[in-house]
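A.,

Following up on our hallway conversation. Structure tokens first:
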């Protein structure tokens, strides 16, 4: 019989550093490249890059994000759609419970 351990504290916010640490280095490199402004890109590609930059700035300025927020889930879903993440990696990033060392508690 498998025992399910339920944490005594469920954290809802993850620090910016811990959130970005959930990404592999190669994924962050791809994200950075895909976030760059390229004047010759189509308007749609420029807007997608801008959305990525805005999300990253937002997380850094706040110092945290909520893994269940619409902004975060949409950001990760867009990365999957744009082939910057696989769905299993997206699930791992979003669904791994936040542990005490990752929690934003301010």
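Then the amino acids I'd put at each of the 106 positions:
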């Amino acid at each position: 019989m498998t025992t399910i351990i339920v944490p005594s504290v469920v954290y809802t916010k993850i620090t910016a550093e811990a959130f970005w640490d959930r990404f592999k280095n190669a994924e962050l490199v791809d994200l950075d490249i895909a976030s760059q402004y390229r004047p010759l890109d189509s308007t749609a590609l420029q807007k997608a890059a801008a959305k990525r930059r805005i999300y990253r700035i937002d997380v850094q300025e706040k110092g945290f994000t909520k893994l269940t927020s619409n902004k975060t889930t949409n950001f990760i879903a867009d990365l999957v759609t744009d082939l910057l993440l696989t769905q299993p990696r997206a699930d791992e990033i979003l669904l791994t419970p936040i542990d005490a060392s990752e929690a934003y508690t301010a």
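The mean pLDDT is 94. Curious whether your intuition agrees with the design.

B.
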